């Protein structure tokens, strides 16, 4: 019996021994610590002196005098009762509130003679790599090259140009940027290397960095930065230098502007130019005459941040091509090294070599957890696409899609030749089948069935079919710069009303009063009464909109400071463009319009998004509202819709509706002018157009169309006007049909109907 008990406990013996040993060591350690603490507390005599160099506060366990910034403190809130309460308006972006600065500002010194040559070459090669770049010149030509921001000082003297440029930079950008890079138009700068340099430098120091040169006949220790190779100034140095610029202009005599600036910095700030700082080197390369950039393979050339002098535009473009090739080779080599490291490390994981994804270093394909998450493949050939944006089963391959397919086929053949040469040489005969899909976790995936002709070294050829797979991975995500907008803009709501909309006006006005008037939101409302010609003739006896006008009067009595104007229009075909033409003429050009419908429920959240997503002369916003399904089909008397709408069950985003829109009056007037010049006097064309079509075809603005969960509309059967164009009428009918219920709800309704009929 004892042997049976021991055999049963034998698997647990290691665990019991480990627990016992751990508890024993813990008790022993606790007793030692307690004893040491008692001895220290009971020790007589004065406290031990602090370590050499340590402040007294540090000896007592408190931070020293240099650590006040790290000591937490509570700032009590005090409100003066004698002053009226004022709402604190916080900035929209945390970067503005915390006082962050932009990283780098670039100034290019040019002249009237080289503005259309070397300056244009700089603008085409490196300007788009810098966040902000301006060109400074003494005199300007009559026509400024496209895409260049030019500042002319009115004097070609080099010293005066440098003086005015430094003043201008301090006045307009001194408080916005941390670093200022000054270069000439005969300098080629590696933009990415310059940006990487400033990310490794501390902004707390006064920095004067460039190619250090000795003054002629001056102090051996003093250096100035050669202007031809560019130089970097910190914001702190610029702020300290600005008060002395006038003195430098009057007291320092020099022929070269870079020497003048260097002498000014040395004399008044005591800072000399350096070529190395904080472990970072400012590498430069002096380009000899008649040098061919394509043949430059020296290490100094490849490591250079700036190359000078550049004699003409052609040399500038050739330098840019050579440095781009060098940078591309470095990137490809880094990718190969990283892929090799991934393979080596993956072999040590539990999955082994089977865990290596293809391509190496790219995320594995998305694995759906249900059939609803499966990403479908789109079939295509070299001429046609069988998954079209408009829903048709087949359409011609054109535009960006055609260029994409051509590039993928060329890349596939190129990769095959690189893999099998020199034994085999492949050439494409035909694309048999093509499939592609977009995987959000990795990029665009392609599968191609190619009919190839393979030729050997001896001249023999053979036709074969081969399937290849390719991936166009997602590249580095970049933030697109957008103009700054605020939430303080006034929104002008425009509500067109017909006789069919009278039953829903009361709910719209109630929501408008509750969400905008009660909250004092900066929004106004204009009503547009659309009379049928028959109703317009009888308006003296019976006004069909009399009830709505009475509701408006009640609102104006309740809110004394609010005025809700209305405009009366007589028409049989309420074209959205014609109605907007009338409203546009009665408002200023800087008005932000929100074109609404009677089923729209206004709320502050959406109005703020309308303000933020609409940018004058840049972008218009067309939200996709959420349309609730028919409750009779969805709930069938079992339950009522809850206040928290379940988007997957209770409705859908109505992509067929373009009735809601946010845009500025100035943008509409510009697009409308182009439309009028195109259609001349054919006003009947306007009946087949919406405001969306006007912006789409007659403006160069961004059209931002996105789902808007803040716009929720109750179900109602819309009346579709058959006198509108066929496309608009068809879209209205589709919107009604798809707004009935989801497929599962419709299937359940049909099933219940069949069950009822069978019984």
Automatic annotation (TrEMBL):
GO terms for cellular component: Golgi cisterna membrane. It is an enzyme of class 2 (transferase). Its main location: Golgi. It is a single-pass type II membrane protein. It is found in: Golgi apparatus, Golgi stack membrane. It holds the Pfam family CHGN. Keywords: Glycoprotein, Golgi apparatus, Membrane, Signal, Signal-anchor, Transferase, Transmembrane, Transmembrane helix. Residues 44-53 have a biased composition (Pro residues). This is Hexosyltransferase.
């Amino acid at each position: 019996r004892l042997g049976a008990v021991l055999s049963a406990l034998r698997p647990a013996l290691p665990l019991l021994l480990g627990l016992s040993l751990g508890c024993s060591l813990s008790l022993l350690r606790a007793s030692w610590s307690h004893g040491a603490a008692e001895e220290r507390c009971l020790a007589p005599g004065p406290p031990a002196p602090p370590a050499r160099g340590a402040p007294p506060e540090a000896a007592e366990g408190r931070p020293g005098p240099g650590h006040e910034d790290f000591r937490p403190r509570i700032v009590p809130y005090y409100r003066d009762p004698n002053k009226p309460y004022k709402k604190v308006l916080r900035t929209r972006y945390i970067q503005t509130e915390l006082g962050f600065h932009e990283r780098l500002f670039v100034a290019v010194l040019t002249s009237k003679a080289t503005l259309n040559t070397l300056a244009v070459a700089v603008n085409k090669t490196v300007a788009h790599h810098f966040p902000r770049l301006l060109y400074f010149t003494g005199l300007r030509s009559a026509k400024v090259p496209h895409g260049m921001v030019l500042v002319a000082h009115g004097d070609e003297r080099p010293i005066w140009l440098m003086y005015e440029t430094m003043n201008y930079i301090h006045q307009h950008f001194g408080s916005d940027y941390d670093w200022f890079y000054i270069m000439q138009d005969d300098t080629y700068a590696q933009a990415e290397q310059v940006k990487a340099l400033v990310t490794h430098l501390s902004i707390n120091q006064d920095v004067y960095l460039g190619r250090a040169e000795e003054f002629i006949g001056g102090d051996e220790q003093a250096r100035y930065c050669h202007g031809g190779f560019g130089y970097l100034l910190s914001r702190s140095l610029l702020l300290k230098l600005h008060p002395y610029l006038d003195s430098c202009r009057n007291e320092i005599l020099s022929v070269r502007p870079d020497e003048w600036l260097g002498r000014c910095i040395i004399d008044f700030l005591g800072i000399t130019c350096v070529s190395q700082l904080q472990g970072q080197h400012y590498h430069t390369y002096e380009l000899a005459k008649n040098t061919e950039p394509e043949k430059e393979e020296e290490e100094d050339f490849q490591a250079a941040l700036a190359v000078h002098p550049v004699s003409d535009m052609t040399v500038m473009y050739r330098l840019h091509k050579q440095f781009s090739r060098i940078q591309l080779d470095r990137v490809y080599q880094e990718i190969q090294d990283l892929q090799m490291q991934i393979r080596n490390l993956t072999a040590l994981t539990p999955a082994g070599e089977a865990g290596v994804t293809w391509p190496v270093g790219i995320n594995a394909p998305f694995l759906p957890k249900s059939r609803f998450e499966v990403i479908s493949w789109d079939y295509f050939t070299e001429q046609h696409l069988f998954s079209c944006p408009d829903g048709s089963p087949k359409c011609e391959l054109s535009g960006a899609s055609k260029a994409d397919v051509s590039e993928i086929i060329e890349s596939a053949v190129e990769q095959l030749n690189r893999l099998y040469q020199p034994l085999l040489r492949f050439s494409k005969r035909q694309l048999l089948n093509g499939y592609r899909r977009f995987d959000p976790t990795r990029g665009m995936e392609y599968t191609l069935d190619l009919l190839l002709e393979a030729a050997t070294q001896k001249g023999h050829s053979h036709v074969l079919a081969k399937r290849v797979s390719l991936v166009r991975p997602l590249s580095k995500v970049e933030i697109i710069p957008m103009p700054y907008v605020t939430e303080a803009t006034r929104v002008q709501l425009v509500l067109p009303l017909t006789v069919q909309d009278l039953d829903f006006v009361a709910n719209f006005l109630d929501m408008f009063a509750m969400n905008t008037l009660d909250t004092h939101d900066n929004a106004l409302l204009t009503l547009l009464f659309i009379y049928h010609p028959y109703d317009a003739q009888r308006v003296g006896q019976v006004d069909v909109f009399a009830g709505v006008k009475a509701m408006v009067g009640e609102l104006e009595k309740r809110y004394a400071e609010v005025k809700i104007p209305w405009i009366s229009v007589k028409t049989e075909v309420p074209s959205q463009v014609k109605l907007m033409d009338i409203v546009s003429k009665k408002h200023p050009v800087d008005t932000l319009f929100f074109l609404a419908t009677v089923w729209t429920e206004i709320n502050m959240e959406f109005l703020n998004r309308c303000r933020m997503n609409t940018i004058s002369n840049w972008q218009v916003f067309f939200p996709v509202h959420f349309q609730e399904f028919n409750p009779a089909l969805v709930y069938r008397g079992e339950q009522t819709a809850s206040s928290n709408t379940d988007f997957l069950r209770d409705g859908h985003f109505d992509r067929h509706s373009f009735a809601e829109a946010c845009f500025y009056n100035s943008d509409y007037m510009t697009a409308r002018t182009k439309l009028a010049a195109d259609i001349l006097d054919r006003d009947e064309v306007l009946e087949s157009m919406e405001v969306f079509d006007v912006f789409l075809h007659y403006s160069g603005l961004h059209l931002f169309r996105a789902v808007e969960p803040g716009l929720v509309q109750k179900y109602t059967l819309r009346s579709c006007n058959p006198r509108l164009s066929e496309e608009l009428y068809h879209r209205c009918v589709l919107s009604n049909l798809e707004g009935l219920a989801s497929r599962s709800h419709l299937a359940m309704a049909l099933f219940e109907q069949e069950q009822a009929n069978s019984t």
